[in-house]
Amino acid sequence: MTKNDGTVNQGNSSWSGKRILVTGSTGFIGRNLTPMLEKAQYQLLAPRRSDYDLTEQDHVRRLFADTHPDIVFHLAGLVGGILVNKEKPAQFCYQNLIMGTTVLHEAWRAGVGKYISLIGGCSYPAEAPSPISEKELWNGYPQPESAPYSMAKKMAVTLAQSYRRQYGFNAIILVPGNIYGPEDNFDLKNSHVIPALIRKFHKAKLSGQDEVVAWGSGKPIRDFIYIQDACEAILLAASKYDGSEIINLSSGVETSISELVETISELVGYTGKIRWDTSKPDGQMFKGFDVARMHEWLGYSCRTSLREGLVKTIAWFESNYGTARLTAQI
């Protein structure tokens, strides 16, 4: 199947014997994606963060000299919620911009055959009509609270397309929706909405709190994708898609934050009151994703409903509370 300049191949049998490098293997997506690669018995290269600083070009060049990868999944990045993005805009902009630029350049320089990276849905314009089509990417400025991060990630699209045009470098960029699931970051200050809410309601239940404060108005609309579905879609795109156009990877189901809060409260078993703190930012009001390309170009549809995914995520968090990431160093 072919769409625009993107071609879909015949699966990943050609990956047999290939060396696959995953940056950010200890992050949320990396912790879920690498076991899937290991299960498929690929030659997986997952370097320790302490061995290579991906914001330093000489470290990145040494990484490629040491590993000689054939395929690269660039998942490393500085990630956090709205509040920490507002507090540390320069850090979020610089680190993501320099990592995305340097890793892609050195992958091309090292002769890598396929490069796969991700940007967030927050890179879309703040006023983009929902569900957001991939064609909207350059039609406006992102939500101001996270714009430094969003613009840095957005540049990865231009880089990938530029290196493809000039050098024929096979780099693809994917846009997952709001990912959640096991191994997420549950730091109350630095995490995204679902892990923060799970931890908040879990703590409130255990301590017998009468009230839980939720941020914002509850009115924003989001489109969530369970981590297992996201990883399946990423691997499918990596093995089948060779085009320059971005592809949204999400459920295509829109859910209000108020509905999400009520569902998590119910599933955790919290019976107290919920109070909305409207002094906290809502972020973009409407952010669902148009997933037509994912359906048509990849032949993929998400299998996990939001409720089912939340049940699994809450069960994982409660079973792994002692080792879950409760504090993020940013």
List keywords for this structure.
330 residues, alpha/beta, Rossmann fold, six-stranded parallel sheet, globular
Question: Any chance you could write out the topology, listing elements then pairs?
Answer:
Layout: E1 2-3, E2 6-7, E3 19-23, H1 28-39, E4 43-45, H2 57-67, E5 71-74, H3 82-87, H4 89-109, E6 114-118, H5 147-167, E7 171-176, E8 178-180, H6 193-207, E9 211-215, E10 221-226, H7 227-240, E11 247-249, E12 254-256, H8 257-268, E13 273-277, E14 286-287, H9 292-298, H10 306-319
Parallel strand pairs: 3-4, 3-5, 5-6, 6-7, 7-11, 8-10, 9-13, 10-14
Antiparallel strand pairs: 1-2, 10-12
Helix pairs in contact: 1-7, 2-4, 4-5, 6-8, 6-10, 8-10
Counting DSSP E segments of at least 2 residues, the number of strands comes to 14
- Which residues sit in consecutive blocks of at least 5 with pLDDT less than 50? 1-11
Spatial sequence of strands, sheet with the most strands? 4-3-5-6-7-11
CATH topology description of one domain: Rossmann fold
**Gap from first CA to last CA:** 43 Å
Number of helices: 10
- Report the structural category: alpha/beta
Average pLDDT number: 91
> What percentage of residues falls in helices of 4 or more residues?
40-55%
Shape: globular
What's the CATH H-level superfamily name of one domain? Answer: NAD(P)-binding Rossmann-like Domain
- The CATH class designation of one domain is Alpha Beta
Per CATH, the architecture of one domain is: 3-Layer(aba) Sandwich
- Radius of gyration based on Cα positions: 19 Å
Element order: H for helix, E for strand? EEEHEHEHHEHEEHEEHEEHEEHH
